[in-house]
Specification:
The protein is an all-alpha fold. The protein folds into two domains: 182 residues, MFS general substrate transporter like domains (Growth Hormone, Chain: A, Up-down Bundle); 213 residues, Growth Hormone, Chain: A (Up-down Bundle), CATH 1.20.1250.20. It is 75% helix and 1% strand. It has 17 helices and two strands. It has a two-stranded parallel sheet. InterPro entries: MFS, MFS_dom, MFS_trans_sf, MFS_Vesicular_Transporter.
Length: 469
Amino acid sequence: MNSSQINEGNRKREKEMEQNGDTEQTVTPENSTAPASTGSSLRRMTRRQTLTLISSASVNLSSMMCYSILGPFFPTEAVKKGASQTDVGLIFGCYAICNLINSLIMGRYIVQIGAKRMLIVGLFVSSICTIAFGFLDRVPSGPPFIALCLIVRSIDAFGFAAAMTSSFAVTAKIFPDNVATVYGFLEIFTGLGLILGPPVGGWLYQSFGYEVPFMLLGFFLLIMVPFNIYVLPTIDANPSKDSFLKLLTNVKIVLICFVIFTMSAGLGFLDTTLALYAIDKFALSPGYVGLIALGLSLSYCIASPLFGYFTDKYPVIRGWLMVTGGVTTAAGFWLLGPVPFLHIPSQLWLLVLMLSVIGFSLGMSSIPTFPEIIACAYKQGFQEGLSTLGMVSGLFSAVWCLGMFYGPIVGGFITQNLNFEWAAAVQGGLTFLAALLLAVCCFFQRLRQSSPDNESGQGCEHYPLLTSE
């Protein structure tokens, strides 16, 4: 057989493989997911990658809708059932705290539990809790109602933490060269969930009563369980001896966590104060306030995939994207009121514009954080694979939840004792401080890379997310 015949046979086999696609159910230990060239793998996704992306998108959308559905009507219903404003705050706050704790636990033991099993169990638990929450209006008023709300929300936080932690880790494993691009794409569905949750929940509540919104979303989550059993690959991995404490010994990772904290704190602050401020200052109806808030969510949805693409294509700029986004977010908060010492009158168009700026700059800041922490962890010597990805995912979720707990409490306290303008200014100052500290870290890191003593000249930005054998 001559060489031309051999080459022709090879071409036929390659063509058959392309037609069949990659339908393997199991991803074998750690480095078996061979990355394609950056920017090209998403254009040539296998069937399994496509279904995994659809699965993660549906998890983000449904989970965020379930998270945000309570806003329009639950506080009013809770007050009718004998709960005080403090009790309502505790019901919302316990979700963030339990999510924080569970995210760390799930991230640490994702390999022992299994990523696929963790996501499926998390979806199942969250769906049952969502349905159960719809029956709480039948519980006697007073302490029994408040206690059951706290219990159901706490268990729901366990399911949410399991599903989201596993979803992030699996996505990073399946798309090792396009973590930021895929993360940015998935954040579109996160934003859509936050956008659709309140109006859909409010409309269902007004049309059909308290139970129907929770029933429909709960059953939708329940349907996702068999879908993910079929779609998601089983990822075999070896447990790592690394820990969260070792992860937090890296200064840059700590500063990135501070950036994540300020972003979620800002969103939490706006969740609890923006509506009251807009209604009081501009005499708007709740419906118009919801339209104003769309400016933030829509601009975030637009920015996320855009910066995800640039983050993967130019990984060296990840740190400076976070810094630039942080400074821009801080400016947005300072002009949101605006801050009193600027002596700029409050105007509705300025409020809408700054909300859009904040949403866009949050996308600029948040998308590079996840791949940058992964890169820094591998540079620090963490084992490449699911165990590290799980810890990074758990750390990201935990810090985000901490900010969502801090933002409403501190922002509400400052608003109550001073006003919204000063509360927004303080939030902007916190965001600016995080950006400034990260900028100093990136500057000194660049100096070390360019110094003659640094033979490799590589920092976290240049370290590959995963390498193939």
